[in-house]
């Protein structure tokens, strides 16, 4: 990791860069062996760490907590959010608390909104494809290295959906791998991102695009496209049936 | 149960596992993680009236980390240090844990050995999927520092974990 761009490459791989910055980082990555090695190693590491089981709160802790909350009398209104954020941590924590003005965690509605936004941004920005290939043996490892996850990638050319490439994107703060298909003049995109137990939206339409969501293995999937209902159903059926 | 309690349970309790996971990785002890999370959730509940929107998970994790720092200072004053060689076995996911448990356990141990400032950014990024900005807020450090610590944490772990990846 000797490249002076390595931190920037890391930001790109973590899905922190947008628009022109992301395109510039992607361009650099294409020509820099150091950063490519970093990308591959980071993807392996991410993969391994995400498989490490999370510790979950023991039931005994949940019970103790419930009892404690039962005992809590309503506190004086003087206690504020900032006091809580600063509890135990003094001034630095207060500074951290003051900077908290983030969006709400993604609900099902924001998830479908984020997905259509990502799809439209890619279409209008002309950046739907970062790796152009109809060969799933090229697209799959590229996605694994760049998105940190490795969903199955299948070319459905015989069924009318031609694999044209892949890209990484960000859906509601999570890095996603996107496989891009052509169906006539229409584009169909298959998003995949790590399952965090989020509630997935019902299938539906937003801003003229059809969407379907499902879970398989440890990934969440979403298909987005403006093809007609029959073609969309067919694609979703194919995508759901594919195996690694 | 009053409305405030209901809102707290609906909004904060879904993140109890995340709070516990962070406390567990930071303290490296189930007993300490228990105390830290209890303390943190109680503080969060008391301060909940003032919580208006924002990312509640990041807010809770900030409080968890602060409680861990406080507990650490108190422990130091008492001259107590956590058990370093405690066996690291996850309580959750028994089925998955059985698969490749050796690899996971080694990786657990390697992560646990990282210095605190590296370990926390790595856990927040890779396990809790927090953005750089959220990690900066939770740890009270500038984004640039978050980025360099994350790079360092990954490099350290890659060096030591080469054989189990």
Describe the protein in words.
- The complex is a heterodimer of chains A (244) and B (165).
- Chain A folds into 3 domains: 6-51, no CATH class; 59-98, no CATH class; 108-241, Phosphorylase Kinase, domain 1 (2-Layer Sandwich), CATH 3.30.200.
- Chain A is 45% helix and 20% strand.
- Chain A has helices at 6-13, 19-31, 33-51, 59-71, 81-86, 90-98, 108-125, 136-147, 229-241, and strands spanning 131-132, 162-171, 174-183, 186-194, 204-206, 209-216, 219-225.
- The longest helix of chain A has 19 residues, at 33-51.
- Chain B is mostly helical.
- Chain B folds into 2 domains: 1-80, Rna Polymerase Sigma Factor, Chain: A, CATH 1.10.1740.10; 100-165, Arc Repressor Mutant, subunit A (Orthogonal Bundle).
- In chain B, 71% of the residues lie in helices and 0% in strands.
- The chains are: A alpha+beta (244), B mainly alpha (165).
- The interface between A and B is large, with 61 and 82 residues.
Keywords:
heterodimer; A: 244 residues; alpha+beta; Phosphorylase Kinase, domain 1; 3 domains; seven-stranded antiparallel beta sheet; B: 165 residues; mainly alpha; Rna Polymerase Sigma Factor, Chain: A; Arc Repressor Mutant, subunit A; 2 domains; 71% helix
The secondary structure category of chain A is alpha+beta
Oligomer: heterodimer
Biggest sheet strand line-up of chain A: 1-2-3-4-7-6-5
> Helicity of chain B, in percent?
over 70%
Assigned CATH class of the largest domain in chain B:
Mainly Alpha
Biggest interface and its residues per chain? Answer: A-B, 61 and 82 residues
CATH architecture of the largest domain in chain A: 2-Layer Sandwich
What sequence of helices (H) and strands (E) makes up the elements of chain B? HHHHHHHHH
Low-confidence stretches of chain A: 75-105
Order of helices and strands of chain A: HHHHHHHEHEEEEEEH
Distance between the termini of chain B: 49 Å
Number of domains of chain B: 2
Shape of chain B: globular
Radius of gyration of chain B: 17 Å
Outline of chain A: globular
Number of helical elements of chain A: 9
Strand content of chain A: 15-25%
Which blocks of ≥5 consecutive residues of chain B have pLDDT under 50? 80-93
Largest sheet report of chain B: none
User: How many strand segments of chain A?
Assistant: 7
